[in-house]
Amino acid sequence: MSVGVRSLGSGSSGNGLLIEGDGTSLVVDCGIGPRVLASGLRAAGRTVGELDAVLLTHEHVDHVRALPRVIKERVPVIATAGTLRAAGIASGGAEAIALGGELAVAGASVTAIGVSHDAAEPCGYHVRLAGIAVTVVTDLGRPEPALAAYLAAADLIVIEANHDEAMLRAGPYPAHLKRRVLSATGHLSNAACGRLLLEALAGSRRRPTVWLAHLSTTNNRPTLARQTVQRAIAAGGFVAPVVPLPRHGHDLVWRPGLSSAETVQLSLPLG
């Protein structure tokens, strides 16, 4: 079986990503509801109990909402030690991964990437499986130097483009929440996402697909996020498919060799 990546949900209502191939099935974050998780896995021909592991980026509820179901099904949980403690996960059935450390997980190689976010010990992940690399960094307040190498090495990049800064500043959020989102431990803007990708991909021979994750429904629009990021990377002469992830649904699938047009037409709201 070739590698496939399926979005199970993206945004403040819940995040989840299925990565599978060569008999291995991993989920990055389980912040969608347990029934939504089960439904998304069923669409991929999987059940929760068949997962080889769930990788948690951090303990916020939109990343761990279905964790009780995962634990009940005895699925191994992998996260940093700080995230495991903050999420209240006992050692049984859980394995800590160090920032910058690498684990072999059911045929996949998983590396934890340190990110700046207001959580105990948050991380992103670089997953290598069957010759394909996927980098997932969905909650980060600022670009970290270590991110560039993992982005440049990926075939699929799943990266936060949370907000348009002008929309956020002029929008309805209270001042304290605006400060939190804009802070170095908050969320990445469209423009900052584009700059990070430009820096990481400059000079790279790879042409990864870019999935834009964790879009704010109040302070962003899918078309705006895509255009901002595309303009940024195009300024450096780099062209790549850029696809904003929908909040709900589990029919957006990436496979190696899938064209940009085929990726976009999979139930993607572009307004």
Automatic annotation (TrEMBL):
InterPro entries from the UniProt entry: Metallo-B-lactamas, RibonucZ/Hydroxyglut_hydro, WalJ/YycJ-like
Pfam families to which the protein is assigned, alphabetical: Lactamase_B_2
KW Hydrolase (keyword) present: yes
MF terms (GO), sorted A to Z: hydrolase activity
Keywords: Hydrolase
Signal peptide coordinates: none
Domain of life of the organism encoding this protein: Bacteria
Domain Metallo-beta-lactamase: 13-187
Stretches of the chain forming a coiled coil according to its record: none
The keyword Hydrolase is annotated on this UniProt entry: yes
SMART domains: Lactamase_B
Entry-linked PANTHER family: EXODEOXYRIBONUCLEASE WALJ, METALLO-HYDROLASE YYCJ-RELATED
Record's protein name: Metal-dependent hydrolases of the beta-lactamase superfamily I
Organism taxonomic ancestry: Bacteria, Pseudomonadati, Thermomicrobiota, Thermomicrobia, Thermomicrobiales
